């Protein structure tokens, strides 16, 4: 009786081999996309060498999911933020750093409100990721916007009274103005992410989506690469100086 049952099981497995093969392929495909979209951004550089070896850099792509950030027609801030953030991560890994991203795809950062606000809950989750990562610095990347459409160029913010954050912001701003000229300097800002960060932290507004020229530049991959390189250079200078 037992032998007959096992024979029945083996016959069933043999009959369903195509299904098993399909499920295996599906599993391998899922694993590949999981690596591409998630894991590769938080895995330390193997045998990393370079001036940033051993440094953990927490990078935050602002907004995401239900929160698009600034919107200009079909241009969404959240998409530009993520693209630039990933480019910065690639550059930092080449210098030996370990970049940790708060998000690696277009997703909601929170599903339950905190103190009645989903936005605050999302910011709180970003701060928790930064803290858990043990990052030596925290860099949050955004695009700016204003009603009149007359302001342009990058702007970097830091928490007032935090000298290390101020230095990081100054160095990043100095590099950014080489890419997109502006008379602005790094300035203090009153932001939840800056006040809650345990490490030196800055918010980088890479340009104004409300400004026609800035918007045109920010939708250009080559320009976004230049911006990413400027941010990476600023971070590199921070650890060198």
UniProtKB/TrEMBL annotation:
InterPro entries (UniProt xref): MurNAc-LAA_cat (IPR002508), N-acetylmuramoyl_amidase_3 (IPR050695)
Listed GO MF terms: N-acetylmuramoyl-L-alanine amidase activity
Superkingdom, natural source: Bacteria
Pfam families referenced in this protein's UniProt entry, alphabetically: Amidase_3
GO cellular component annotations of the record: outer membrane-bounded periplasmic space
GO biological process, one term: peptidoglycan catabolic process
Keyword Heme recorded: no
Keywords: Hydrolase, Membrane, Transmembrane, Transmembrane helix
Positions of transmembrane segments: 20-37
MurNAc-LAA domain span: 127-236
Protein's recorded name: N-acetylmuramoyl-L-alanine amidase CwlD
